[in-house]
Design brief:
By secondary structure, this protein is an all-alpha fold. Helices cover 59% and strands 0% of the residues. The relative contact order is 0.17.
Length: 125
């Protein structure tokens, strides 16, 4: 197997996830979602059975962004179990279906960053 190895992302001193990591994570999830081979390897088919609630139908982009932000900001493995990588990839594919086959990666990234800004703890805590 060959692949591009990327440098580790420096996390700020306050242990928050940086914009660069969000950008890289969203880009990776989108690329995986757009690859039939990646979806086959991840076992994406059937991943979302009984996982997606009706809120997805009203605003798919916001729903997916919230799920990605939640996964990226999880502080423990128990919190990370909310949705697996294959689940996030499946959500992006589902979003793609609702958006006439197009994935707005920049819009998704910005929405994830907005959610992460909203959930970051105050410095006084």
């Amino acid at each position: 197997m060959t692949g591009k190895i990327t440098a580790p992302i420096d996390i700020d001193d306050d242990d928050s996830i940086g914009d660069e990591q969000v950008e890289r994570s969203v880009a990776t999830i989108v690329r995986l979602a757009l690859s039939d081979e990646a979806c086959r390897l991840l076992g994406v088919d059937g991943t979302l059975e009984d996982e997606v609630d009706i809120d997805f139908a009203s605003d798919p982009l916001t729903y997916v962004a919230n799920e990605i932000a939640t996964a990226l900001t999880a502080e423990s493995d128990d919190e990370r179990d909310h949705l697996s990588l294959s689940g996030l990839v499946a959500l992006v594919r589902l979003y793609q279906v609702t958006n006439d086959g197009f994935v707005d990666e920049a819009g998704l990234r910005d929405a994830v960053l907005d959610f992460m800004t909203d959930v970051e703890p105050d410095e006084d805590d």
